[in-house]
Write a structure and sequence with these properties.
The chain is of the alpha+beta class. The chain has one domain (27-124): Lipocalin. It has helices at 2-24, 30-33; strands at 35-39, 44-52, 58-64, 74-81, 84-91, 94-105, 109-114, 119-124. The protein has an 8-stranded antiparallel β-barrel with strand order 1-2-3-4-5-6-7-8. A hairpin with a 3-residue loop joins strand 6 and strand 7 (109-114). The termini are far apart.
Length: 125
């Protein structure tokens, strides 16, 4: 009897870990990133659209409040694979990829970290 209770307890705890780990990334979806985001730290703004661009990328635009307007925004390409956000920005005749790991994505908050462990935080406008 004690073995059955112990086995049941172990199975229950394991099941709870599975649920908790799956719940973390539930909000990290393409649907939640679509829209215009303003940096919490500076004047950077980004607009992620659902418009197909090239390959598996979508269109985006970026600008700096106070320096440029949204109409003058620079176009970039972006895609999400799980919690990995890749942006490709044009530089001369090549596109330079910027790869981020999304740490939080809700309907109103976007936070990610780059490969140099720099944190970025945005609020949806």
């Amino acid at each position: 009897m004690k073995r059955n209770i112990f086995a049941l307890l172990v199975a229950f705890v394991g099941f709870m870990f599975v649920l908790a780990s799956c719940q973390k990334d539930d909000d990290i979806t393409v649907d939640n990133i679509i829209g215009t985001w303003k940096s919490d730290n500076d004047g950077e703004c980004k607009r992620y659209t659902n418009t197909d661009a090239k390959d598996s990328y979508k269109l985006g635009a970026g600008w700096w409040v106070g320096q440029t307007t949204e109409a003058q925004a620079e176009t970039f390409y972006w895609k999400m694979e799980g919690s990995t956000l890749t942006e490709q920005w044009p530089t001369a005749s090549i596109f330079i990829p910027r790869i981020y790991t999304i740490t939080k994505l809700t309907a109103s908050k976007l936070q990610y970290v780059d490969s140099a462990d720099e944190n970025f935080s945005f609020t949806k406008q």
